Amino acid sequence: MNNDILKTLYSEEDIKQACKKLGKQISEDYKGKTPIIIGVLKGAIFFMTDMVREMDIYTKLDFIDVSSYNGGTKSSGSVKLIKDIDIDVNGQDIIFMEDIIDTGRTLKYLKELLADRGANSIKVCTLMDKPEGRVVEVKADYVGFEVPNEFVVGYGLDYDGKYRNLPYVGVLKPKIYSDQ
């Protein structure tokens, strides 16, 4: 797997420091509250796990799964709900945990979905933000890193279901996905 990586963008230590910083900020912002942390599957599982361990507040956890890439390198343009959350969000404070925000379509869809369900507040925490990829106007409230417009994998991010288990974030060599 490591041979497929062009360069490392964020090391394990970089990611750990970002989680500590973001976890501290969220703990301060939500002091006295019990937000529902919703992980966006499958990419956010590593980030969400590390993030909640850095939070010094009560939380509830849930997961949602949506798809817009369908195994490729570009968003299909439509968002499909695969697995819904189990918790009633009416009147609750929500924090979405995302691995990366690219086009913004998924995030826009999720925020609208939970706003329609009566969430009190909806915030977004993402490990990486790729503003160059935006096609809809959305912003994250908590950002670990701003990434260049390259195809990144590792630490939950995948290409065709692979590379999620890399402990760092790297740029995938174009020859890996251009041969497909």
UniProtKB/TrEMBL annotation:
Catalytic activity from the UniProt record: IMP + diphosphate = hypoxanthine + 5-phospho-alpha-D-ribose 1-diphosphate; GMP + diphosphate = guanine + 5-phospho-alpha-D-ribose 1-diphosphate
GO molecular function, one term: glycosyltransferase activity
Cofactor: Mg(2+)
Domain (Phosphoribosyltransferase): residue spans on this chain: 8-159
Pathway stated in the Swiss-Prot or TrEMBL entry: Purine metabolism; GMP biosynthesis via salvage pathway; GMP from guanine: step 1/1; Purine metabolism; IMP biosynthesis via salvage pathway; IMP from hypoxanthine: step 1/1
EC number(s) given by UniProt: 2.4.2.8
EC class of the enzyme, as a word: transferase
Keywords on record: Cytoplasm, Glycosyltransferase, Magnesium, Metal-binding, Nucleotide-binding, Purine salvage, Transferase
Subcellular location per the Swiss-Prot or TrEMBL entry: Cytoplasm
Family: Belongs to the purine/pyrimidine phosphoribosyltransferase family.
PANTHER family: HYPOXANTHINE PHOSPHORIBOSYLTRANSFERASE, HYPOXANTHINE-GUANINE PHOSPHORIBOSYLTRANSFERASE
Function: Purine salvage pathway enzyme that catalyzes the transfer of the ribosyl-5-phosphate group from 5-phospho-alpha-D-ribose 1-diphosphate (PRPP) to the N9 position of the 6-oxopurines hypoxanthine and guanine to form the corresponding ribonucleotides IMP (inosine 5'-monophosphate) and GMP (guanosine 5'-monophosphate), with the release of PPi.
NCBIfam families associated with the record: HGPRTase (TIGR01203)
Protein name: Hypoxanthine phosphoribosyltransferase
Organism: Apilactobacillus xinyiensis
